[in-house]
Specification:
This protein is α/β, with parallel strands linked by helices. Helix content is about 45%, strand content about 15%. The strands form two sheets. It has an eight-stranded parallel β-sheet. About 40% of the residues are buried.
Length: about 270
């Protein structure tokens, strides 16, 4: 199943790595960027490298590392470090071009992927090309840095425009729906509302900064039992009708696009009814 929640953990806090993996997060992002001060970058790389060397393969498979962006003074050191790490996926901060993805990919093991984090106007503007670059797993939206770059606040419709742009770019490239940005507020009701809004814009997962955000974020992207039951009725009725142009389910007409949406919902759901 496509990951629904991504939890950030500072790379210089190795005592938190196991706790993060024990949470309900689908993926854990060991961070070398914003969560780590400049003087701690080297020690954070050492801490992450030590953990990766001893971690079980199943744990490593759930982990990404977020590296500093291509224009930062730490990017070259990050790339050199990546060459010796058993990582299957890396998040690239402030990604703006497909070429930046290719450079990171060239320092990773064969078969590894890059998850570009789109945090700037240039990045969102180039999302179609970036999404289609080889080795991209999916796109993510760094909404807080995007606000800073564009000079808007958290309530600006410009954030919705950027979210839809990433959604469209992901669909054009046949990638999973993009990952929505973080919610600074830890209140689960606020997180849930943000995640539901992201879902309405076509996003398919959420970045989290605290374990208590995870369940609230996940619920927004998981179809409810009632929705799953409806989807089963649609699929069963459609597939037991010969050559249907449309069928009737719950006193409503269902045509092929609705049937295909029901099938997609069942594929996304971890529950059955």
């Amino acid at each position: 199943m496509t990951p629904l929640t991504y939890l950030f953990v500072p790379g210089n806090r190795p005592e938190r790595f196991a706790k993060a993996l024990a949470s309900h997060a689908d993926r854990v992002i060991l961070d070398l960027e914003d969560a780590v001060s400049p003087q701690d970058k080297a020690s954070a790389r050492a801490s992450i490298g030590g953990w990766l060397a001893s971690a079980e393969p199943a744990s490593r498979a759930r982990v990404l590392v977020r590296i500093n962006d291509a224009l930062s003074p730490w990017h070259t050191d990050n790339l050199a470090w990546l060459q010796s790490q058993p990582l299957s996926e890396v998040m690239l901060s402030k990604c703006e071009t497909p070429e930046q993805v290719a450079v990171v990919l060239s320092h990773l093991p064969a078969g590894a992927q890059v998850l570009p984090l789109m945090e700037t106007v240039r990045g969102v503007h180039g999302a179609v090309a970036i999404a289609q670059a080889p080795g991209v797993s999916r796109l993510a939206f760094g909404s807080i840095d995007y606000q800073l770059d564009l000079g808007v606040d958290a309530h600006s419709p410009a954030l919705e425009h950027a979210s839809v742009a990433l959604t469209v770019a992901s669909r054009l490239a046949d990638l999973p729906a993009p990952v929505a940005g973080v919610t600074p507020d830890l209140d689960p009701s606020v997180v849930a509302a943000d995640a539901e809004h992201a879902l309405a814009l076509g996003m398919g997962a959420k970045l989290c900064i605290h374990p208590q955000q995870i369940d609230a974020a996940r619920q927004a992207f998981v179809p409810s039992p009632a929705t799953v039951a409806w989807a089963h009725r649609v699929v069963d009725t459609w597939e037991h009708t010969q050559h249907p142009g449309a069928v009737q389910v719950d006193a409503r007409m269902v045509d092929k696009p609705v049937y295909l949406r029901a099938r997609r919902l069942l594929a996304q759901s971890p529950i059955s009814v």
